[in-house]
Amino acid sequence: MLIKMKNLTDGDISSVVEYVTINGCEAKLFKNEDNAAISVLGRGREQKLNLSELSKLPGVDKIYTKDYFLTSVNYKKTKSVFKVGDVTFGDGSLVVMAGPCAIESYEQTDAIGKALSSMGIKVMRGGAFKPRTSAYSFQGLGVDGLKIGREVADKYGMLFVTELTDSRYLSDFIEYVDIIQVGARNSQNFELLKDLGTCGKPILLKQGMSDNLDTWLSAAEYIYSRGNDRIILCERGISGADNKYYRNVMDINALLAMKQLTHLPLCMDPSHGSGRRDFIEPLSCMGVIANVDALLIEVHNCPECALCDGAQSLHLEEFQHLLNSLSIYQNARQKVRY
Amino acid sequence: MLIKMKNLTDGDISSVVEYVTINGCEAKLFKNEDNAAISVLGRGREQKLNLSELSKLPGVDKIYTKDYFLTSVNYKKTKSVFKVGDVTFGDGSLVVMAGPCAIESYEQTDAIGKALSSMGIKVMRGGAFKPRTSAYSFQGLGVDGLKIGREVADKYGMLFVTELTDSRYLSDFIEYVDIIQVGARNSQNFELLKDLGTCGKPILLKQGMSDNLDTWLSAAEYIYSRGNDRIILCERGISGADNKYYRNVMDINALLAMKQLTHLPLCMDPSHGSGRRDFIEPLSCMGVIANVDALLIEVHNCPECALCDGAQSLHLEEFQHLLNSLSIYQNARQKVRY
Amino acid sequence: MLIKMKNLTDGDISSVVEYVTINGCEAKLFKNEDNAAISVLGRGREQKLNLSELSKLPGVDKIYTKDYFLTSVNYKKTKSVFKVGDVTFGDGSLVVMAGPCAIESYEQTDAIGKALSSMGIKVMRGGAFKPRTSAYSFQGLGVDGLKIGREVADKYGMLFVTELTDSRYLSDFIEYVDIIQVGARNSQNFELLKDLGTCGKPILLKQGMSDNLDTWLSAAEYIYSRGNDRIILCERGISGADNKYYRNVMDINALLAMKQLTHLPLCMDPSHGSGRRDFIEPLSCMGVIANVDALLIEVHNCPECALCDGAQSLHLEEFQHLLNSLSIYQNARQKVRY
Amino acid sequence: MLIKMKNLTDGDISSVVEYVTINGCEAKLFKNEDNAAISVLGRGREQKLNLSELSKLPGVDKIYTKDYFLTSVNYKKTKSVFKVGDVTFGDGSLVVMAGPCAIESYEQTDAIGKALSSMGIKVMRGGAFKPRTSAYSFQGLGVDGLKIGREVADKYGMLFVTELTDSRYLSDFIEYVDIIQVGARNSQNFELLKDLGTCGKPILLKQGMSDNLDTWLSAAEYIYSRGNDRIILCERGISGADNKYYRNVMDINALLAMKQLTHLPLCMDPSHGSGRRDFIEPLSCMGVIANVDALLIEVHNCPECALCDGAQSLHLEEFQHLLNSLSIYQNARQKVRY
């Protein structure tokens, strides 16, 4: 339950918080210059609150028992900007996160990490827990992979982002990982999302394969309403009319629409958004035009021998080319009058 | 990894099992009158097995590092038949599982359970952990709901099926639940599926919203290959061309196709497969024609006051009508020559 | 433009008709015991009518410049029933229309027609103008095919239904054909639909591949509003999550929903609705449960040598089996209390 | 039928042409430096050719009775470049085609045409025959609209592109129109496509709403194989996961893939590809990155009073802004090393 206040009056807020607390629930206050809202958590006890009584408390505007509010521009009109280490998301700069689909070994990760770092990359990606359609496919190195990622990231002064597939590993992620990714297959794994709401780490939340924009923002609201406001929303393609020539359709309109719907930073994943190595550079450059805050790109020192998704991973030299092209289009964007 | 054998020769099987075990992995043998296959589990160690060496062992036919095999008719040509308590799935009979979308209270559950039982229903459904799009919607009573479901099911001599959304609750489910449901949103939650492979309880696995049939069977294979062969596959509708007049499209073709692809029992969920109360009876009767082994139907003593999905829940009297109609069509099916 | 009247008052209707006629448009009156509405046609002149003036004429309720009305149950609460030759559509009986995908020769058509007729079939299908994805595929025999179809249908006392792909052939269709089919690819070919509105022949209108129900009824409204009220709506499957094991998804929910949205007779095409011969019988039997008014089934005396769509055509003996099964389920339906 | 030759040998080609002609069909030769192929047309007579005999003629490589070839890069490895009046398509330049959704009056068209011309636009769009979902919506001015479009285009020295919805108007289009558009709803209207293959006018062929890339190129092959090689393929968006915030998804991957599949020029329609005015500029700029050859943009002097699709039409000043931005990104693209 979320209680939106009519205004920012401290007294009114206090009464609502008190009411909620007295009734055995936890009240979490969200407040900015425009709005105040109180998220009510109670492991079911919030279901028993008397809505009619609650709605009559002074200052109460609207009680949400469906939909989302905190992640929308209706709650916060200015863009959310936050730092993770030295890296800032949401300030208009473009954060390029890159690395292999899967962490396969220390040597592979070190080679890629070294190269990426020398190209100025500040955030390394690399999967340790891989959700794979087949029970018999490589499932990632697990916690060993997390340790390798951490070690390599530290060695080259980078942040480390990787996907979490189950809450049981959360403590390991808190120890080894800087940004926790939620993949498309877990975008509706609400127990996981709830845990991420209190984990203290920034979250990269991908759009689920059959999520519309409201569903996606509702998933983010699970995290945000529990107190974690460092969420990056990552578009990764939808299924389309053709799956012979490309795996997914990059839904560029979703990125353009989300810019207006939410204050959270937006990321584009052109690797999954196409499934084709040769589409990654043009799609990334289009991301510049869509004003995305971040890119998530699969790069491998040997895509042909990758254990996972080699066909959508860039060679290192292709990635360097992409960075150059990005920079050209970023300069161009400066010249466009808005 | 799965190693399919050329034949059923014990000696060959033993050598493969020995090879796998010596190399630090667990070997699980699957064998019927037609086929033998060895599922290899090793928390990553199976990745390091020497495939070239393995494939040269006597009797080794094919090593799966993608796709699925055990859940398909290629592995087992006869239908899987299994009992849960006194209820048999897969023997040609039709098991009707019914109950409220969510367990809301003891009183509500008892009233529904009593009525269902008096109509001859042997399996009661009812959600305790509800995956809801909005963070602010009713999320179910949790473990309290499991206890209520158990108590009512026991009182009326029924089995209890309910949805599990995270492995952390698995021990509670093992204690209170007879059949564990995996919902559409968790059909690609592979960590959960792995745990269900060794939980000892039968599983009701729904098709995910963007799963095709291969993806769905691959999900079942996660469970089956770890040793749990009591899986019921449940079709619950896909998104279609129209979402104004009905929520989902019942993919009846999927049921017809699955009958030929897998030996596992099949279930139809006409409530989610349409989202409309008035479609449930005709869809259920069509399930008879599709020869499904089970139906999963939402019934409520007061759909209008249900906390969840009331619009797709039958009134008790409508459910009685449905049972009568089912029986008429089941009789008719006896007369059809196949 | 469509002008819905508040009631059936003759004087009000006359004034509107007069107003429309004076302003250079043609007025076509639609009236039943519940409603009266005036369809205004003017090749553009209707655009220039003064809506404000029009809406103030006595008895004018609503002026439609979008959406549909005449084909909906809001216009006509009782089912539309009409005869074509001796065959009645919409009276609760089930009309089975069958025949080859394409008319390939007199001999083939005669052999199939003879067999179908001996099984009691009253309407023969068979394509003469085939819309084919590839420019190089067999496009049908054209007018020669129409003549063959007519001759065979007459020989065995059947009606002949076949697809029209362009208005230029309309006069031939009027001469040789009893029911004119509009295929999924032409469901939005509005020039064709307009012509069919005045052609005097009953129409079998398929749902387009990306039509939702409103779009489909709007297409029917093009025909109906020009004066042709003998329209059968035919569901032929939509694209779904799986296209490996079946070509299309039979959208059975669409049929159930349309029963409530429109007064027009409904048809199911299980051949295109699956693309699989072995699905046709169960889908047809489900059509009985959905209360469809007609079935459109591909049958061939040699599916293996068919020039088109052999994989979804029944052998003659399979079709006889289907008819027997249909009859069993039709009897069962009699026993269901509604 | 299409007969692909093994090489360019004149003698072999002549024998095939002779064989085809003797058997009552028309042979149309397609030849470039890489390939020769003979398109066989015969109004059904080509069905009776003896394929076995044909395939044994010297030089015959492959006989197509399905799929497509001429529109693919397998036939022609270099980009197709052609002029329409003074405007060149396919030479690496970007042709911006703009104008109102519908031609509503001379005054409106003249005002828009004048403004566009003053901004350097060389091709004016404007619908005279409007395919509308509802029978009651504005259907365009028809031939009167064609005349207005022609007059305004001539007055300002522009070309005129507009949509044809039925062959019966083809002679009018040949008289008044420079480029004939085939809309998404007619992309599978094969009778129309055949006529366009011999009409002598360049064609703008939109992707159909449920066309995949093979289906789209097959539609183009209908035109090309009859002798019209001036075809521009226009992407206009597909249906996606969200239809609340935007009408269609711009399938940018389709454009990237088509660049590699076909030698024909490619166009993007950002107006229909989103349905939102504020998305048109960013999408158009992304078209620069995708290297499209043309853009098709809806511009209106008063979108708020447009009779059709105002919400996706740019104001004139917005269009000027778009042109400036395009130019900035085109300059940037020059600097990208390929």
Describe the protein in words.
By secondary structure, chain A is of the alpha/beta class. Helices cover 33% and strands 18% of the residues of chain A. In chain A, α6 (190-196) packs across α7 (213-224) and α9 runs parallel beside α10 (316-335). The longest helix of chain A has 20 residues, at 316-335. The relative contact order of chain A is 0.12. The mean pLDDT of chain A is 96. Chains in contact: A-B, A-D, B-C, C-D. Chains A and D meet through α8, α9 and α10 of A and α8, α9 and α10 of D.
Count of helical stretches of chain A: 10
Protein chain pair with the most extensive contact, residues per chain: A-B, 44 and 44 residues
Q: What separation lies between the terminal Cα atoms of chain A?
A: 39 Å
Arrangement of strands in the largest sheet of chain A: 7-8-9-10-11-12-13-14
What order do the SSEs of chain A take from the amino end to the carboxyl end, as H and E?
EHEEHEEEEHEHEHEHEHEHEHEH
Q: Helix- and strand-based class of chain A? A: alpha/beta
What's the SSE blueprint?
The structure is a homotetramer of 338-residue chains.
Chain A (H helix, E strand, L loop, with lengths): L1 E4 L4 H13 L3 E6 L4 E6 L9 H5 L4 E5 L17 E3 L2 E3 L5 E5 L6 H13 L4 E3 L17 H13 L3 E5 L6 H7 L2 E4 L7 H7 L6 E4 L6 H12 L6 E5 L16 H10 L4 E3 L8 H13 L4 E5 L17 H20 L3
Parallel strand pairs in A: 7-8, 7-14, 8-9, 9-10, 10-11, 11-12, 12-13, 13-14
Antiparallel strand pairs in A: 1-3, 1-4, 2-3, 5-6
Helix pairs in contact in A: 3-4, 6-7, 9-10
